[in-house]
Design a protein that fits this description.
4-stranded antiparallel beta sheet; 3 domains; alpha+beta; binds protoporphyrin IX containing FE; Immunoglobulin-like; disordered N terminus; Peroxidase, domain 1; 13 helices
């Protein structure tokens, strides 16, 4: 049996889809749903766990956070995006935010644990629909907003590099002309370069153990084993303090890359003074101005992608996801009773009405007509998610209806959400056994077991084929980087096992040797011979997020 927490994720994609949103004609809609889950549904062990509180440091190879080192995950995530993106080029249209940093950690310009720390943590959330590059972007968006900064728009669709890209990340020793040239190639003019660096250097600091040429040994002390000297007095807040300190020559005076006595590595001082302090002084005019400028340059940083990559619209619950179905699954039993289960997610964004106590969910049948069949979703008392957009509430529901009526969609509070029931994995007749340990972002998920895998699919067709093919999308290690890649090399053939009403049921039992972490990242696509996948991205386990 599946545990209660493991809702089946979205598993409905038409072979010939015509409707929007829940029958995506491109797979980006699936990516958006998955990232929304990480971004909006707060949960223990979720994406935010490593950066909550903002002082936290989580080494993903260790069982628990360690705050004695002077390290900080939120700052590491922002620095990771910088080192990944800045070697991209607007002239060649190559590189940018593409997770190539994973292949480049041996370079002197990428010294420090930050990059592998970030990629290893993100690897728990990686799967066939969510690229490492999108997770690096999400890392910036969540750490900036979670720690007092602006909401940088979160778009999805980035594609991971399969090899190292060019080198050229500016180092503290790099000349000002080479530094500006590198940023210019990435699409940032000289003023933008000051702004982006000042924004980045609002959080975290410089560590003695990796930059002894900048920071003296005296920085090492109790709860600061790596000897961090922060950029400012509010190390865990994304704010204008570093800039103000520098402009007014107070506090940390802009941090170690300004104040170090080693002139060769005064890279922030060289940069800020390059235009006679004009840009940095402008940034200090107000907190609101600083935040809005940072929002702009951070967005451009995470949106530098190869010309071939098409990004989605931003995930913005104020416009699109304030009320939306999530973790939906569809089932049918041998008597021909169907059920649509999952929850409605309500994000109480600023200015939105208080969450209703209940929601009425009405079925739209396969023929597109609204039916008299409805269910009540009651706000979950235990669910008081505190995402960066406002409290997130969930309304679990189950709609029951006959297979002859079928599913075309649901209507809730005046909104219509389209679904279809052409082909779907039947959750009650599909599972991975044994059940993996509860999802967590630690090495406890590394245990490898042999899982018995049962995949059972219902196919609405008048001309059923002899069999269907399931393709497993499994995260596997990739040479040269700690980022996994997806293997699609294993398939299984589902045989007909019966019919229920208009559906033909196909099933297979197979086995797989996987780590629990891989099980959480695995998804299954199912297709009839010669057709595009009718089921895409069926995830047996929906990790906490
Ligand atoms: C001229 C360009 C830059 C140079 C030479 C530079 C150099 C450095 C150095 C030497 C450190 C110390 C790293 C450590 O000890 O862990 C650092 C930290 C950091 N940098 Fe930069 N940086 C530059 C621009 C940027 C930009 C554009 C961003 C992001 C938008 C950024 C974000 C960060 C962050 C967040 C940290 C703190 C890391 C931590 O505390 O773990 N930097 N930078």
């Amino acid at each position: 049996m599946l545990p209660l927490y493991s809702f089946f994720s979205f598993c409905l994609v038409a072979v010939n889809s015509v409707q929007a949103q829940y029958i995506p004609t491109d797979t980006q809609a699936l990516t958006i749903k998955e990232i929304e889950h990480y971004y909006l549904d707060a949960a223990t062990n979720g994406f935010f766990s490593a950066i909550t509180p903002c002082t936290n440091y989580q080494d993903p190879t260790a069982p628990a956070p360690d705050n004695t080192l002077g390290m900080q995950t939120a700052a590491e995530w922002i620095r990771t995006a910088f080192h990944d993106f800045v070697t991209g080029s607007i002239f060649t249209g190559l590189g940018g935010l593409d997770a190539s940093i994973g292949f480049e950690t041996g370079r002197r310009e990428n010294v420090g644990a930050a990059f592998n720390d970030a990629l290893l943590f993100f690897s728990f959330f990686y799967n066939a629909q969510v690229s490492m590059a999108d997770l690096i972007a999400l890392g910036v968006v969540t750490s900036v907003a979670n720690c007092g900064g602006p909401k940088v728009p979160m778009k999805v669709g980035r594609v991971d590099a399969t090899a190292a890209g060019p080198s050229g990340v500016p180092e503290p020793e790099t000349s000002i002309s080479d530094t500006l040239n590198e940023f210019n190639t990435a699409g940032f003019n000289d003023g933008d370069t000051v702004t982006l660096t000042a924004c980045g250097h609002s959080m975290g600091g410089v560590h003695r153990n990796i930059f002894p040429q900048v920071v003296p040994a005296s920085a090492i002390g109790p709860n600061n084993a790596d000897g961090r000297v922060p950029f400012d007095e509010t190390v865990a807040v994304f704010d204008v303090t570093t800039v103000n300190d520098y402009v007014h020559w107070t506090g940390a005076k802009g941090g170690p890359l300004v104040t170090t006595t080693n002139k060769t590595v005064q890279s922030d001082l060289r940069l800020y003074t390059y235009d006679n302090n004009q840009t940095i002084t402008q940034l200090s005019q107000s907190s609101a101005y600083f935040q809005s400028q940072c929002q702009g340059v951070m967005q451009r940083m995470i949106e530098l992608v190869p010309y071939s990559v098409r990004l989605s619209a931003p995930i913005d619950p104020t416009t699109t996801t304030n009320l939306k179905p999530a973790a939906i699954y569809l089932s049918v039993d041998w008597k021909g009773n169907m059920a649509l289960s999952g929850f409605m997610r309500y994000v109480q964004v600023a200015g939105a009405a208080a969450p209703p106590g209940t929601l009425k969910i009405t079925l739209i049948g396969r023929n597109g007509q609204t039916t008299a069949i409805s269910a009540t979703g009651t706000m979950s008392a235990s669910d008081t998610g505190t995402g960066i957009w406002g409290p997130t509430r969930s309304y679990p529901f189950t709609l029951s209806f006959p297979a002859t009526t079928g599913l075309g969609g649901i209507s809730v509070s005046g909104q219509t959400f389209s679904f279809q029931d052409t082909m779907f994995v039947v959750p009650g007749m599909s599972n991975f056994s044994p059940t993996p340990p509860t999802f967590s972002t630690t090495s406890s998920l590394n245990t490898v077991s042999t899982y018995t895998v049962n995949i059972t699919v219902a196919y609405l067709t008048t001309a059923p084929p002899a069999s269907l093919t399931a393709t497993f999308n499994i995260p596997v290690p990739q040479a040269g980087t700690v980022s996994p890649t997806i293997s699609t090399s294993t398939t299984a053939t589902l045989q007909k096992i019966g019919t229920v009403g208009p559906f033909t049921i196909f099933s297979v039992i197979t086995s797989k040797s996987l780590s629990a972490k891989q099980v959480y990242g695995t998804s299954v696509d199912v297709a009839a011979p010669g057709q595009a996948a009718g089921v895409k991205f069926f995830k047996p386990f929906n990790k906490a997020a």
